[in-house]
C-alpha cells in the first residue's frame, strides 16, 4: 500500500505544485519584470518596494548582560555566512545517498532557478531524501555536515548567539539536517524546522502532515504571547516578519558576511574543535564546484590509475618524475641522514615513526628515501595490500604477537610504523601507542602532512579500498614529508626512558614540526564517533558447510 500512495503524491507534486504553481508564479514575475523595461514601476505600485521594517545590523548588538536573554534565529543567512542551502543538500545526496543522486540534484539546478523558495526546497528535499535511509542521514549529520557548517559560521552572529542564555533556531530546511550540529556544537536549546515523512527506516522525500515550515508562524506558536528578547535574521522580507516578533531585532547583511574580516570564524574560536570528520568531498559543493567535479571525474579516474601503475612498476626516481608531471607535489626534507649507525654485524633496520594522514604515507616515505621499506598496518583492505608498491605486514592487536612480528621485520630491514593507529585529517595528532618504543633504539620521527582540494583519501564509513584512488584522483594533491633526524639514545628506552615517555616525546616533536596539536584520543574514539564501530576490517571468508 505504501508504493501507490507515494506515486500518487509524486504525481500531485510534479503536476500541481511544480508545474501549475510555478508557471503561474513565473508568469507573474515576467509580467512584473516587463514593466521595468518600459516604466519605472508597475501600475499601482511604488517605484521601489522597501521592507516594512528597518532593523540595525548585527554589529550593533550589545553582548554584555545577555545571560538571561532568549534569542530566536535561523541558521542559513544568519548563523551561516551564506544563505544558499544547495551545498548542504548536495552533501547529504553525495555522502548519504550516491553519486547518481548527487548528479540528479545537480541536473535540477536550471529548474531551481525559476522556482520560488518553497518549491525550490520541496524539489531539493524530494531528490535528496526520497528513499534515503534514516541511518545514512544521521551519519552525515554527525560526521560530515558539522565541518562545513563550522567553516561557514558567521563570527558576529555566533557571538550574539553565544552571549544569550536560551537559544532557539527556526529554519525552513529539514530539521534532521541541522539539529545535531546546532545542539552539539552551538548548544542550542531547541531546533524547530521542516519535518519529513518517513516509512519505516526510509524517507519518502515528502513533507510530513505539518507541511512547509513558515518561520514567523512557528515563532508565534512556540512562544505565544511571550516575545523572545533577540531576533536575528537576514534583510529579506520573510525574515523581517520573523524577527519583528522579537523585542530586539538585528539583521545579518550578506555583503558584510562576504567582505568583512570580522565575520570570518578563526579555527581557535570554534565553539568545539572538529578533530574527526568523514565524507569524500573536500570542498563546499556549490552548483559550479559540483559541476566542475563531475566534469573532472573521468579524467581523475584515468589519472589515478596512471599514478598507481607508475608507482608499482617503475623505479623510484622515474616514478617520482612522472607523477610530478601529472600535478602531484611531493615535498621532502631531511631524507639523507637516517641510516643505521650500528656496526654491520649488529645492524638492524631503522624504525621510522610517522604521523598518519592517508594509507599512502609509507609509500611516499619510501619514494622520498628512494629505498624499499616495510609497513605494518592494522586494518588494511585486501585491495590496498594488492596495489601497495611496498611490503605490508598486518598486525593482530595482540601486543606480544605484534611485538614479535615487528622485531622480525626490523631484523630484515627498515620498518615504517604509524603509532596513531588511524588517520586524522585535521591538524591534530592522536595518542601514540608506545609499543614501537620498546622494539628499537634506532628511531627516526617523520612528519607527514597532505593537502587535497577535491577528494579526501580517507574514510571511516565508506570503502577503504578506494582511499588511495580518491586521493590520487585529486588534480593537484600535495604530500609533505620531513625526516626529523634520529632520536638521541638518551631519549630512548635504552637511555632509561619508559616507552610512554618516548612515545609522548615523539608525538610532541612531530606536532611542533607540523604546527599541530597533541590529543589523547585514539583510533577507537574516532570510529565510534564517525562510524559506530571500532574500525576493524573483517575478512569475509566463506564458511564451509
Automatic annotation (TrEMBL):
SUPFAM superfamilies: Glycerol-3-phosphate (1)-acyltransferase (SSF69593). The chain crosses the membrane at residues 281-306. InterPro entries: HAD_RAM2/GPAT1-8, Plipid/glycerol_acylTrfase. Residues 350-451 form the Phospholipid/glycerol acyltransferase domain. It is a multi-pass membrane protein. It is found in: Membrane. The keyword Mitochondrion does not apply. Pfam families: Acyltransferase, HAD_RAM2_N. It comes from the Eukaryota. This is Glycerol-3-phosphate acyltransferase 1. It comes from Prunus mume (Japanese apricot).
Amino acid at each position: 500500500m505504501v508504493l501507490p500512495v507515494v506515486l500518487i503524491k509524486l504525481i500531485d507534486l510534479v503536476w500541481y505544485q511544480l508545474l501549475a504553481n510555478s508557471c503561474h508564479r513565473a508568469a507573474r514575475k515576467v509580467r512584473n519584470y516587463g514593466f521595468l523595461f518600459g516604466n519605472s514601476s508597475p501600475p499601482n505600485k511604488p517605484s521601489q518596494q522597501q521592507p516594512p521594517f528597518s532593523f540595525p545590523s548585527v554589529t550593533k548588538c550589545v553582548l554584555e548582560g545577555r545571560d538571561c536573554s532568549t534569542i530566536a534565529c535561523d541558521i542559513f543567512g544568519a548563523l551561516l555566512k551564506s544563505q544558499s542551502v544547495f551545498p548542504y543538500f548536495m552533501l547529504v545526496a553525495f555522502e548519504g545517498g550516491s553519486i547518481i543522486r548527487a548528479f540528479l540534484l545537480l541536473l535540477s539546478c536550471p529548474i531551481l532557478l525559476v522556482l520560488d523558495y518553497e518549491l525550490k526546497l520541496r524539489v531539493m528535499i524530494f531528490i535528496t531524501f526520497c528513499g534515503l535511509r534514516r541511518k545514512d542521514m544521521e551519519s552525515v549529520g554527525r560526521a560530515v555536515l558539522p565541518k562545513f557548517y563550522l567553516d561557514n559560521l558567521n563570527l558576529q552572529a555566533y557571538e550574539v548567539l553565544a552571549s544569550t542564555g536560551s537559544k532557539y533556531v527556526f529554519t525552513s530546511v529539514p530539521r534532521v539536517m541541522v539539529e545535531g550540529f546546532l545542539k552539539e556544537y552551538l548548544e542550542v536549546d531547541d531546533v524547530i524546522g521542516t519535518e519529513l515523512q518517513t516509512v519505516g527506516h526510509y524517507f519518502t522525500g515528502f513533507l510530513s502532515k505539518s507541511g512547509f515550515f513558515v518561520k514567523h508562524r512557528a515563532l508565534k506558536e512556540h512562544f505565544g504571547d511571550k516575545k523572545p528578547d533577540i531576533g536575528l535574521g537576514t534583510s529579506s522580507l520573510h525574515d523581517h516578519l520573523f524577527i519583528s516578533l522579537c523585542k530586539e531585532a538585528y539583521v545579518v547583511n550578506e555583503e558584510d558576511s562576504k567582505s568583512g574580516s570580522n565575520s570570518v570564524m578563526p579555527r581557535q574560536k570554534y565553539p568545539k574543535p572538529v578533530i574527526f570528520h568523514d565524507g569524500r568531498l573536500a570542498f563546499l559543493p556549490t552548483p559550479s564546484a559540483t559541476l566542475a567535479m563531475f566534469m573532472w571525474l573521468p579524467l581523475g579516474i584515468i589519472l589515478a590509475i596512471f599514478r598507481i601503475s607508475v608507482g608499482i612498476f617503475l623505479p623510484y626516481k622515474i616514478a617520482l618524475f612522472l607523477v610530478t608531471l601529472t600535478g602531484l607535489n611531493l615535498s621532502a626534507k631531511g631524507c639523507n641522514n637516517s641510516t643505521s649507525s650500528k656496526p654491520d654485524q649488529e645492524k638492524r633496520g631503522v624504525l621510522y615513526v610517522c604521523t598518519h594522514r592517508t594509507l599512502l604515507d609509507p609509500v611516499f616515505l619510501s619514494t622520498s628515501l628512494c629505498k624499499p621499506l616495510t609497513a605494518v598496518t592494522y586494518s588494511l583492505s585486501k585491495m590496498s595490500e594488492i596495489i601497495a608498491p611496498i611490503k605490508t605486514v598486518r598486525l593482530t592487536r595482540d601486543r606480544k604477537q605484534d611485538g614479535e612480528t615487528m622485531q622480525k621485520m626490523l631484523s630484515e630491514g627498515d620498518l615504517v610504523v604509524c603509532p596513531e593507529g588511524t588517520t586524522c585529517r585535521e591538524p591534530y595528532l592522536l595518542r601514540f601507542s608506545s609499543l614501537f618504543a620498546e622494539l628499537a633504539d634506532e628511531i627516526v620521527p617523520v612528519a607527514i602532512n597532505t593537502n587535497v582540494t577535491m577528494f579526501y583519501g580517507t574514510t571511516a564509513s565508506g570503502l577503504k579500498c578506494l582511499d588511495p584512488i580518491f586521493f590520487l584522483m585529486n588534480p593537484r594533491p600535495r604530500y609533505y614529508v620531513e625526516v626529523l633526524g634520529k632520536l638521541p639514545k638518551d631519549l630512548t628506552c635504552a637511555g632509561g626512558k619508559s616507552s610512554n615517555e618516548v612515545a609522548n616525546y615523539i608525538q610532541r616533536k612531530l606536532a611542533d614540526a607540523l604546527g599541530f596539536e597533541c590529543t589523547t584520543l585514539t583510533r577507537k574514539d574516532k570510529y565510534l564517533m564517525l562510524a559506530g564501530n571500532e574500525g576493524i576490517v573483517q575478512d569475509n571468508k566463506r564458511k564451509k558447510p
